[in-house]
Specification:
There is one protein chain. This protein has about 475 residues and is of the alpha/beta class. Helix 3 crosses helix 11 and helix 7 crosses helix 8. The protein has a 6-stranded mixed sheet, with helices on both faces.
Length: about 475
């Protein structure tokens, strides 16, 4: 049975978006996650998932539906988190315990083989019992809440089906019997298959009796019922009996391990993937407390080439101590690429960052910080934010220019049609007139391959020579943009 995933709709390795780690750094998404109470490990996982953002809207829709359920029913997210904290450790804890059996080497005597076989049976029965118990907990939790997402609805139906499965119920009942830590607390009956030379080919447990309960428990569903001749061999040929019984126990142990492993594998991704939704839910809570509007965007087709938002907010400003009421929001309807200019500290970079953050969040299946947004997912989201002065020596304009040329070259090497490119003060130095003409050539290439770009620049010449190109020219005044 296929593994369930809360992040991906299909069983395929996620692809990291080109230069996505650089984009996350430029947009300061790492700092934005610090608004949450999540640990550094949890924040890093959240950012890792963001780097795997894809143009295909199926994953984004899959996640957003689940996130809406978790935002509407926070108790469900809390409950699932609690269940999977213990669930995730089951295989490793079982493996560690099993390894202890052979810590001092393989058993050599019949007695030691029997003891080792029973220990293994006891541990794997415990493993199966626990996995099935967690399945029951998850089933009861999901039954309590009216989930709407397709993924959680299917998970609820699957849990119900598995919890009611006759073979699983029989396995659970059989596993319950093995609560005593040593084999001598039980009486066993096993089926033995012999070859013509009366050598043991196969041994299978048929029943086990706990004298304290005075009740025999069979293994229906594990083996087909057959009318075989029976013999009480007692203690005769003791070594042979113990060896055969050890083989029977090993087979039962493998059955328990197989059942537990098969069930565990179905849900094995969930515990880790819930981290993404916990960080997202925590971020949503913080943003609401600060009075920031959040909404789930309308995702459109790539060919529609839509980038439209109302009340777009740069939430990084919250990390700088600003109140939401003090943050100027913007409305954007960019049906083509845009050049953006304005005086220093008038909101150009903040606007660019707000657009990039919203694009990343939208393609990741998250809410965006806006009143509304319609967006066509892009093949990739690429950024170049000009390096700080301190990264260069005094008056080292040549070093800056050379470094930026290398950065832009790398972007062009990774560019794909229908990408979103965000450029902030690239080639900003006025010492090189060729910067403006060179930048024009680059922007025209982006336009020809249907890439959308937003370019914040102080280069006046660039605005002059781009007058007749297919590009908007916007001006930022008082943190607001206008044509």
């Amino acid at each position: 049975m296929k593994k369930i995933s809360l992040l991906y709709t299909e069983e395929k390795a996620p692809q990291r978006m080109r230069r996505s780690s650089k984009t996350i750094y430029d947009l300061s998404l790492d700092r934005i996650t610090e608004l949450t109470s999540a640990s550094k490990r949890e924040r890093n996982y959240f950012l890792e998932v963001l780097t795997e953002v894809q143009e295909d809207t199926a994953n984004a829709t899959h996640r957003s539906e689940i996130l809406k359920d978790f935002l509407n029913i926070p108790e469900l997210l809390d409950g699932m988190t609690q269940i999977f904290r213990g669930y995730d450790n089951l295989p490793s804890e079982t493996a560690e315990t099993l390894a202890e059996i052979f810590r001092y080497g393989l058993p050599t005597s019949a007695d030691a083989m029997l003891d080792a076989a029973y220990e293994e049976l006891y541990i794997n029965a415990h493993y199966a019992r626990n996995v099935i118990a967690y399945l029951g907990e998850l089933d009861r939790l999901l039954e309590k809440y009216p989930v709407k997402s397709k993924a959680l609805t299917e998970m609820k139906e699957l849990c119900k089906t598995l919890s009611g499965n006759e073979s699983i119920r029989e396995a659970e009942k059989a596993a319950e019997e093995f609560r005593n830590e040593t084999a001598d607390k039980y009486s066993f009956t096993f089926n033995a298959k012999l070859d013509k030379g009366m050598r043991l080919i196969k041994a299978s447990l048929a029943s086990v009796t706990d004298p304290k309960k005075a009740k025999k428990t069979g293994f229906p569903g594990f083996h087909k019922k057959k009318r075989n001749p029976k013999a009480d061999i007692g203690n005769s040929a003791s070594d042979c009996v113990q060896t055969a019984l050890a083989n029977a126990m090993s087979e039962a142990s493998s059955l328990f391990s197989g059942i537990a492993g098969a069930i565990y594998e179905i849900f094995s991704k969930i515990g880790k993937e819930l981290t993404f939704f916990r960080v997202a839910s925590d971020l949503a809570k913080v943003l609401k407390e600060h009075g920031v509007n959040i909404t789930f965007p309308e995702l459109c087709g790539t060919e529609e080439d839509i980038l439209r938002a109302e009340g777009l907010t740069d939430i990084l400003l919250l990390t700088e101590g600003k109140n939401a009421s003090d943050i100027v929001t913007n409305t954007i309807d960019v049906n083509r690429s845009a050049l953006i200019r304005g005086e220093n500290n008038c909101g150009k970079t903040s606007f660019l960052r707000a657009v990039g953050t919203a694009a990343f969040f939208a393609q990741s299946g998250l809410f965006v910080c806006a009143k509304s947004m319609s967006y066509s997912p892009r093949k990739s989201i690429l950024t170049h934010f000009s390096a700080a002065e301190k990264e260069f020596g005094q008056n080292d304009e040549a070093g800056r220019f050379e470094g930026e040329v290398q950065e832009i070259t790398e972007i062009l090497d990774n560019i794909q049609p229908h990408s979103l490119v965000l450029l902030n003060e690239t080639f900003q130095t006025t010492a090189y007139r060729e910067g403006a003409t060179g930048m024009k050539d680059i922007l025209c290439i982006l336009d020809r391959i249907k890439c959308r770009y937003l370019f914040v620049s102080h280069m006046k010449l660039l605005f002059e020579i781009m007058q007749n190109e297919n590009v908007k020219q916007l001006t930022a005044v008082g943190y607001r943009l206008s044509e």
